Structures are given as C-alpha cells and as structure tokens.
Amino acid sequence: MIGKIIGLSPVLAIIAAVSASGARDGGIYTDGDLSGCGRPANLSSSLPHLLTSSGMVRSYTVHLPANYAATQQYPVLVGYHGHPGIGLFLEVDARLDEFAPDQIVVYPDGVEQGWAGANYSRATVPQDLQFTADLLADLRARYCVDSARVYATGMSNGAGFVDVLACNDTVGGEFAAFAPVAGAYYTNARGPNDGCKPARDLTPILEFHGGADASVHYDGGEGEGGYEPPIADWLSWWAERNGCQTPPEQQDSFNDTVHHQTWTCRGVQGALQHYKVDPMSMSPWDSFHNGHFTDNQCRIIEHDWPSTEPNFSQVAAGDVPTHIQASEIMQAFFRNHTRPSAPGSKGNSSSPEPRSSSGGAHRLDTTKLAVIGAVTGAALVAHLV
C-alpha cells in the first residue's frame, strides 16, 4: 500500500513522559557473556554486520555510544522495522540511537523486508527467533553488553515480532522489557493462551497505537497478514498473564487525544502501559499556518511512529506530528526494568526521574532528513504494515 507523500515542516510540540515505579524484587541477572568486553571497537556511527543463521545470511546495523569504552557494560536496544522495510527505515523513523545515546542500538533486517508471524512472512517464527538469539550472541562476542538490560521495540510487523519475542520462553527471556509500536499481533490474536508462553511471571510491556490506525485497526479485524486482535483485548490478555490489577489507571491529556493507561502488576506499578493516540481536532502545526488548516493537516496519528517532529512513517502515511515522542517515553520505561536473576522472578523496577524534552533536545538529523527526501522523492515510500 503506497502512502501519501507530504512536505516536511517544522513543528513546535511538547511531549508527555512516563514514570513507572515498583518495589525491587529479586537480584539482577549477572551471568551474561562478557567475552566482548575489552575488545577494541570501530566507533563509526553505523556498523553493518553479517552472520549466518538457520542457513541464511542475515544482516544488522549497530550504533555504539559516542563515548563507548570497551571495559564498560552497555544496555542493548534492538529495533525491528515494519513491512516492507529494512533496518535503515526504522533508524530514520524512530531515531532510537539519538534518544538512547548511552546504549548499543541495533537495527536488524528481516528476510525479504519482513518478520515472522504474518502470512506474507518469508521467514518462520523459529527462524527469526534463532536469528535474534544469534544476533545477541554475536553482539556479546563483539561488544561489552549488559545482559540484564536488553530491550526490544519495533513498528507494525516488527512490533508484532516483538510480541512473538515477549511470548517466547527461551529467546524472549533474553530481554528485560518490550515496547511495540502500532503492532500487528498476528500470532497472539485469539486469547491469553494463544501460543503465548512468556519466560517470566512478569513481562514489562509498553504499547503505542493510533486510535484511527487504518492499517492495523485499533478495534481489530482481518489485516494484511492475518487476523489482528482488538488492542483492548490484547492488553487485557497481557494484564492477565502479568497478574495485573484491573481496571488500569488512565490519564487523558492534550484535549482528550492522548490516553495513557497504567497497570500495577504483581506489585510493580507501570509494568504494563499503553498509549492510545486519537484524532486531533487541530494540527500541532497551527502556529506555523496562522490558524488556517486543510483537512489533511487536521487529521490524526495514523499508522506511524508517534513523534513530535516529522518522521519517516508520518511522511509515508501523509500524517502529521503528534503530542508525544514514543522514542523518549520508552527510554524512561526501559530504565525502570532489568532482567532478573531467576526465570520466575519479577525482575527489578526503579523510579528514576524521566527525562523531559526541550525545544532543541533532539533535532531532526540532516543526514536522516536527506534519506527521507531521497526515498520520498523517488516515490518508494510504502505505508509500513
């Protein structure tokens, strides 16, 4: 599905930051592979890597912290792109490495531009799970990885695979928390026990979704890769698995267009969270258009990555920026969760002060802006599904 192309304009907006809190329970995982610690590393901004997994040559790109020190352990964030796409698309779209400058950020590439779970996928679930396991092993052999702080996020089909990971009791156990965005949840679609076996009693999850998403409908239904559950049902299943108190707390903001739900699960506040972004009555570009809006500018957050600045998926969907910055919100969430030492443990939660965003905190990188322009100019931008 080819998305509309719109021009890029500057935007002034503010973001909402999330703060989760909870009691410490159990020790932090300390048995990770440290063989990459002490090895010299190429500090180039983007490092492509190849590996063989399940008989296929697979690829991923790594961003290291600017001050990377080979003797210091670093958290890892793995970002799975949407379909059709490659890791570069998510890199340009979500700018995870910019919002997580102290982490090793990884952008893997799916087989034929997609991830397992959808009926159009060219890789099986076991193959992509094995690739993720092989990727993490390769990272630990090359770099100094803090195995207690490995996280996963993704967009659309990639977010669906993040759910596959969260529902897996082996490879999924390598991760401390998950943050899918606009997820197409094809494999966890029919109920709390639909093939979902998390590695631990508590699986921290933060989910973002547009209330008017026209590609992965909020209310569910038949999607391009199979049946998709209503997001409210999907959240209730995770609340059941995580032993959460219901109903969740809800905060509505920005003229009732952003809805933030928070569950307390097994004594950990905010272990399950959800942001629903509804249609906006006014565009956040109002100060730049002198109060004059077209129907297109007064639209919604559709099937794209929530951002206060124009990004790749917004351009693809013909959409506009929103009031929240998903890449920043998920960082506050991740900082609250570490992998526990025991499989059945809840893990550790803490309450650091969430970062707030200022007007110039994260400017749209000119190189990435050029990538957006080049791709859209060639009419190759697809609506990621």
Automatic annotation (TrEMBL):
Query: Where is this chain's protein located in or outside the cell?
Result: Secreted
| Keyword Secreted among UniProt keywords | yes
GO biological processes = xylan catabolic process
- Signal peptide start and end residues: 1-20
The superkingdom of the source organism is Eukaryota
- Could you give one GO CC term from the UniProt record? extracellular region
Q: What is its main location?
A: secreted
Give the catalysed reaction(s), semicolon-separated.
feruloyl-polysaccharide + H2O = ferulate + polysaccharide
The record, for SUPFAM superfamilies, names: alpha/beta-Hydrolases
Q: What is its EC number?
A: 3.1.1.73
* Any GO MF annotation of the entry: feruloyl esterase activity
Q: Where is this region: Disordered?
A: 337-363
Composition-biased stretches, type Low complexity, lie in 345-360
The protein's UniProt keywords, in alphabetical order, are: Carbohydrate metabolism, Hydrolase, Polysaccharide degradation, Secreted, Signal, Xylan degradation
Protein's name according to its UniProt entry: feruloyl esterase
Taxonomic lineage from the root: Eukaryota, Fungi, Dikarya, Ascomycota, Pezizomycotina
